[in-house]
Structures are given as C-alpha cells and as structure tokens.
Amino acid sequence: MSDCCSGKACQLDALRRRQTSTLKIVLLINAAMFFAEFVAGLAAGSVALVSDSLDMLGDALVYGFSLYAVTESLRTKAVAARIKGLIMAAFALAAFGQVVYRLLVPQVPAFEAMGTVGLLALLANGVCFALLWSHRADDINMSSVWLCSRNDLMANVAVIAAAGGVLLTHSGWPDMVVGIAIAALFTRSAITVLSQSRHELRRADAGDQPIPSTSIPSTSAGRSHE
After folding, report:
1. Which of 80, 117, 122, 129 allows an S-S link to 69, with CB 3.0 to 4.6 Å?
2. What pTM, to 2 d.p., does this model score?
3. Distance, CA of 125 to CA of 102 (rounded, Å)
4. Pick from 126, 158, 180, 151: which is nearest to 55 by CA?
C-alpha cells in the first residue's frame, strides 16, 4: 500500500499546513508588537518608533492576506500580493506623514524608550525571520511575507541606532532620519511586491500556472518533481 504523502497532492497539503502554522505565529507576534511600539512611540515622541510600529501593523495585515492565499490559486496569490503592495505603499505615506508632523512640531524623543522597545522589536522580528526562512522560496505569497520580515530587522537595527544618535546629539534629527529611511524602505518593498504581483498575474492570465518544484520536498531521490 502506497504512502499517501508520497504523492504531490499530499506533499502540497503538508507544505500548506506548515505555511499556515508559521503565518499564524508571525501574525500574532507582529500584532502584539504594533501595540507595544505604537504606544511607546507616541509616549517617547519618536518618529522612528511610530513608523516601525506602522510597519508591524502593515505586516500583520500582510500575514492575514497571506493566510487567506495559502490554499488559493496562483492568480489569487498574485492578487493578494498586489493588495499587500498597496498596504505597504499606504503605510509608507503614513510614515512620511509622521516625519512632516515632527518637522512642524519638533521634539527630542526619549532615547531610553527608543532603545529598549527597538531591541524588543528586533528580538521579536528575529523569531519571525527564523520561522519564515524555510518558506522564503515557496511561492510569491510566502516570498512577499519573508521580504517584510527581512525589512523589519533592518528597520529595528536603524531604530536602535537612532536611539544612540539622539543620546549623543541631544536632538531629534537622528530619529527623523531613521523615520525617513523606514518610510523609504516601505516604498521600495511596495514597488518590489507590486512588480512581482504584476508578473505573476500575467502568468496566470496566460494560463501558465506551474507549481514551483523547489516548494515541494521530494520523498525519495529517484522521484520526479513533475
């Protein structure tokens, strides 16, 4: 009697279950960190922390769309990726708005809160990054999720650096610079994901919907991926 999971369909089911489990965990982590960073950012008067918290909220929404798309068709995954790109673009505008506000209403942020919360966010995103690493090449859905996680780590390191800059300069400019950098990172990610989704939509419309062989682990050395 053949093992069910020796077939491609069962391998895909197992892959999707792993993807779903991972996405649920990283969604919860990002939702919790959004509230923590947003409240701390407002209390500390930090543009960088508020911008990073918006990143966390954007990621939580992205992961929600990704959960929906796990079991869907290539076209649905591509549409979900487009929505994610638009979400990233919207939060980029929100982050730039925070920068403009601080230019009009200057404030030296509390570097202690920036450093502490920034380090906590770095640890949280490190966990997310590790969980998503093995899924980064599964498909466009998981690829866009992993891209968000990678960008989060960069943003967290920048926030911690900004806290050090505020401590050394006693001014809000390091915080402002990092806020702008995070907004720019949002923008770049949005452009990347939107470009990928456009390519995948064209493939879907052309009827070219192959399942990437790299996303399906082979159960024996001699079995074809096709």
Report:
1. 80
2. 0.69
3. 26
4. 151
Residue 213, pLDDT > 70, answer no
pLDDT class of 222 with cuts at 50, 70, 90: very low
The CATH number covering residue 122 comes to 1.20.1510.10
- The residue segments making up the domain with residue 81 are 9-210
The number of domains in the chain is 1
CA atoms of 62 and 95, how far apart (whole Å): 17
DSSP string, 69-120: HTTS-HHHHHHHHHHHHHHHHHHHHHHHHHHHHHHHS-----HHHHHHHHHH
Residue 85 scores a pLDDT above 60: yes
Indicate the DSSP class of residue 211. Answer: P
Lookup: tokens for 115: 């450093």
Kindly state whether residue 4 falls inside one of the protein's structural domains.
no
2 lies in some domain: no
Does 112 map to a domain?
yes
**CB atoms near residue 85 (< 10 Å):** 22
Which tens digits make up the pLDDT trace of 9-49? 555 566 667 778 888 888 899 889 999 999 998 898 888 88
> How big is the chain by its Cα radius of gyration, in Å?
20
- 217 within some domain: no
Summarize pLDDT for 116-162 with one digit per residue, the tens. 999 999 999 899 888 888 777 666 667 767 777 787 888 899 899 99
